[in-house]
Structure formats: C-alpha cells, structure tokens
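Session log. Operator J.P. requested a structure for one protein chain; no other inputs attached. Running the standard single-chain path with token output.
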Amino acid sequence: FDVPLVTVDAVMFTYHEGQLKVLLVKRSSHPEKGQWGLPGGFVDTMSDESLEDTVLRKLKEKTAIEPPYLEQLHSVGNAKRDKRGWSVTVCYTALMAYQSCETHIASVSEVEWISIDAVNKMALAFDHRKLIKHARERLKQKALYSIVPAYALPKEFTLPELQHLHEVLIGKALQKKSFRRRI
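Structure written below.
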C-alpha cells in the first residue's frame, strides 16, 4: 500500500488587547513558501512516540511555546490538501494566556499572534483556514459550558475580564447576573 504523508497542526488561540488571536508561522519552505500557516509538521517515526509528542515538538521548534494543555480536534485526510501527495493531518487546539508566552514568541522570527478577524482576510497555506474555523467553533461551544476560556487569561483576572472573554468567544453579550451565577 502507498503510505500517505502524516502531519500534525496546532490551532493555538489567545486573548489579547480585547481580541481573540491565532498563532501563525510564516512558511520557510515549499510548498506554500512565504505563506502564513499553522505551526505543525511531519511525524518523526524515529523520535516521536505519539502524535502528542509530535505536536509538542513542532510547537517548541517553530514557536518556542509549550501550551498548558492540548486537545485533539480532528483528523483530515485527502489527496488535495498538500501538493506533495495524499496527506493526513491530526489537528490539535489549545487556548493559552498571552502573558505566559509573549517572551517566547518575541524571540522567534516569522511567528505572530494575529487577530481572528485579520486571519479571516488572509491567504493561508494548505487547508489551514478550515482547520482554524473548526477549532474556533469548538472553542465557542466550550465557552458555553466550561471554564476553559480562563486559560487565556493571566493568573489573576477579574470577573468582568472573564465575562468579556466569554462574550468574545461566544459572539454575543451576556447578562452580568446570569454569567456570574453560572461561573
């Protein structure tokens, strides 16, 4: 049997300056050289013991960050997503505090936190726009029933800051009293 290319991609979100942002890297090699895309890459069958090892290794190599948690989002595979051939990617997502990684990001060239609104207007490598859209929807759903959005805030934050973050993620205003009761 032919073996497909196997990669991982990471959709990393943060909340900064009142906006939801996505971590992107500028591709340094072909295909899609010079385009912005998600941090990720190929599984190294000699050193990676799991897909989680691969995504953590790629995040560290390309962005110098280590997320507080990672969630496997989904897998996508087809003959059209990569010009090099039939490929499968396992996509991961996480939300993290800007403050916990800004110094690491600043030390790496060609890596930026870009607002989700700006990302929606950019040309992205491969099928990364679809991966971001899927991860954004998952994050919105998690904001409806969990405290996961708190990962995007510094260690100390106020209830109004947490509420504003939930409103950004959900896409609508929340009643203060209802939000506080839920929290």
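Operator note: The chain has a mean pLDDT of 90.
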